Amino acid sequence: MSNVDEGEIRRFSALASRWWDPRGEMAALHHINPARVRYIERVAGGLRGKRALDVGCGAGILTEALAAKGASALGIDMAEASLEIGRLHGLESGVKADYRCIAAEALAAEMPGAFDLVCCLEMLEHVPDPASVIRAVATLVKPGGDVVFSTINRNPKAYALAIVGAELVAGLIPRGTHDYAKFIKPSELETWSREAGLTAVELRGLRYNPLLKSATVGDDIDVNYLLHCRKPA
Questions:
Q1: H-run or E-run covering 132
Q2: Where does S-adenosyl-L-methionine bind (predicted)?
Q3: CATH assignment of 6-153+182-230?
């Protein structure tokens, strides 16, 4: 529980009822999710039959998408209100995914090496100690398994686009969603992953186009980016 920002929990809990509204405050998350899922499916060598964990799942946009692709998916988060919305949406959609209100560190102590795939997307920049989450993720994935992180780079361009542009000018995401000081450079993420026993496989950028309401995975890691790691067998 020490690695929880209560302000962040309150902020995301307040958005819970609107999480699945594709035209609401979380619209950008809906727009980027297909690109994220395609990337995850590719690097994991397919999702069908895989046991997958979504760390910091919110109301389950990614968790449910992994389940729809055939994975046995568990989403964990510390905002119970968001998880309840995820459960309700699963009943409506007919896509079965499981949800638990538990920290990654606590689940790691309970279920080490239990997952073929662990995803931790847009979450590390919202906790006091991201390296602690990364260590937990490394414990949770089985040897030979895959890990996918995504977060936001820390540089002037990222500040201009992710905070000034997306939050203050365009209103693409709610104001106060991000704290620039918590943004993470790729070198930092790779170092923490390596120290946790993971091997970095691929670093890719995620570019969002608000006009087309879509995202693409490419070479530009200046703002949003993904890191695929693997736990040595």
A1: helix 130-140
A2: 36, 56, 77, 121
A3: 3.40.50.150
Q: Residue ranges for the binding site for S-adenosyl-L-methionine?
A: 36, 56, 77, 121
Supply angle C-alpha 45, 49, 53, rounded to 5.
Answer: 80
Q: Is the pLDDT of residue 185 over 90?
A: yes
Q: Which amino acid is at 190?
A: E
- Locate tokens 């692709």: which residue? 69
pLDDT number for residue 1: 52
Domain spans in the chain, listed from the N-terminal domain onward:
6-153+182-230
Q: Which residues are annotated as a binding site?
A: 36, 56, 77, 121
Per the listing, tokens 């109301």 go with 59
* DSSP letter for each residue of 206-231: EEEETTTTEEEEES--SSEEEEEEE-
Band (pLDDT 50/70/90 cuts) for residue 171 is: confident
Alpha-carbon span 114 to 187, nearest angstrom: 28
Asked if 174 and 24 count as a contact pair (C-beta separation under 8 A), the reply is no
